[in-house]
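Dear Dr. K.,

Following up on our conversation at the group meeting, I've run the structure prediction for CoA transferase from Comamonas terrae. I'm pasting the input sequence below exactly as I used it, so you can double-check it against your construct before we proceed with anything downstream. Let me know if the numbering doesn't match what you have in your notebook.
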Amino acid sequence: MTQYDRPASTLPPYSSLQPLEGVRILSLALNLPGPAALWRCAGMGAQCRKIEPRAADRHDGLPERTADPMERYSAQAYDAMHHGIDVLQMDLKSETGQQQLHEVLAGTDVLLTSFRPGALAKLGLAWERLQALHPHLSMVRILGSTGPDADIPGHDLTYQAEAGLVQSLQMPPSLFADMAGALMASEAVLQCVLASRRSGHGLLHEVGLAQAAHWLALPWQWGLTQPHGDVGGAHAGYRIYPCADGIIAVAALEPHFAQRLCAAAGMGEAAVDMRSPATHEAIAGFMRIHSCQQLQALAEQHDIPMHPLAQ
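The predicted structure tokens came back this morning:
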């Protein structure tokens, strides 16, 4: 078993309140959602450990420090998420590795995994068996999807596409399903800890990345972010406009912000129909002839929510 020394990094910001102080979490989860969830739990005061397969067990000849693919995708991301985490390496398919695993589980409150149910069963980590061996232990299982599709392979991109978040040939700017799943998994840890303290026994909670993507897609499904929606471009005060040297994100959605925007754009103090083509054209024309610096100054002067992005 090896513990790696990590470069300094910053955990997600939290207040001095540490709701998971004293809670012992063990993670077997690789890639992004599991480590991101564990990172958040560490930021809430939990004692966090992670077990990875031994790098030598990969049989792919790669020289990475760890057996977690995330280190290969982005060493920066891996190091950030594992700062302060006690990382151990075990061969969980061996008798010795299984013995070591259950020794650790005996002193663990919550087990975090990201394997498909079939793979968990092969490792002897089916929920029923864990309950029998460690009745105090709770388990948070991160899956591609909960329910009958749990063993179907997928990744962030396919879950986003299924939820309607992929709109073109452009790749999404973030791994929304993975990061939302990480948030849900850290929330699930809190739920298990609270409920277990009341019941006196461990609980099982499943988090589906597909379901996380569908949660993020609800504003689109409700029509809010579709082209006819006020936050989808139909409202002239909530749009992205080209300006003289870049683009500017304008979020003057509320009536008082919209009125200030229209007044700054020379449209007078009277209420304006923010959905009319004339309003869209007038604000677009105003933005087009001003620089990012000028618009930033105007936003600060008139208290208008805008953010310029210079080219």
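Two things stood out to me. The two ends are 49 Å apart (CA to CA). The chain has a mean pLDDT of 91.

Best regards,
J.T.
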